[in-house]
Request: fold
Amino acid sequence: MADIENQIKEFAKSIGFDEVAITDASPFLNDEKAALERIRSGKMDGLSWYTEERVKKMNHPEILLPGAKSIISLLTSYLGDEPDSTNSLKGKMARYSWGDDYHNVIKKRLKILCEKLPDILNTEVNTRTFVDDGPMNDRAAARRSGLGWVGKNTNILNGKYGSWFFLSQVILDVDLTNDSPLNKTCGSCVRCIDACPTGAINDSYEIDNQKCISYLTIELKGNIPVDLRPLMGDWVFGCDICQDVCPVNRKAQKGSSIEFRQRPGFSTPDLIQILEMDQAEFSKTYKNSPVKRTKLIGLKRNACVALGNNKNPDAVQPLNEILMNENNLLKSHAAWALGQIGGIDAVNYLKQALENEKDEDVLLEVNLAIGFCEENQNVSV
Reply:
């Protein structure tokens, strides 16, 4: 039987997967219990789709595929070239977003794998596949299969590829020989905890969802809390800080998938260009890209925050255009950014907004921005 497992793994690697491991389809009961506790304690607030019903489904493979017996867990590395050079008018995007949308790339490979399984197994087989977009506990499957171990930043860590990879799974109704979990932990290392600027990671292997920069830049659709904006730096889509400092990633090997190579300008996008984008340009630029998840309004909001943190005076005029002409969400974040940059021009624009603006929430942000300038004595108001 082991030869069959090896054939599955070899074929999967031949079509682009970097690592493959197998586990059984029994429930992930401990993971289910922990996830339900997190929901009930409010630690998953802000993710409306992450419900108790979903948690119960994602931890029971037999619900996802009746008759489920095995899970093939697959790793696809996206580590490639280093980021482009940056400056105070550029932002940063998480590595996984530099290339093509991984959902599309990996789903095609999973389809090829599933079509091959009956030949390898010499029997009919029912399958169901997942790529980070369905009710499947991918990290639990990866951990139990031995594909990696859980880091304190909640990422799965692999000795060869670090944490720079996508997970995917095939649930099937055929018994396979299981691989063994790894007997590894992060030990006493707390680098990711210490490095997280918002304090989103704790030493209990948990993430405070509402403090995580990835959540703030992607999942959150409204106003970013004012107290968290200065801590976000110049990240405009996702965040890699906890991965950048992880010792396991120091010698991580690059992946073989050309689809995840960096598109020009994706690692350090021009923030002014983002502010000036219309919907047509956004759709064209980020076609078949994970970045489209944040939508144009979210990306512009994030660019405002990044420019405010970078404090380049050249951003004042473009931010004023947002303050004068965009919707209230963007106006609020542009006002905040102008306050962070400061200077005579920024304050004059903010005062002009006081005379013209009608929305109370925007006016509050404008007044706070002016007050910040006054308090920090970066201009006489």
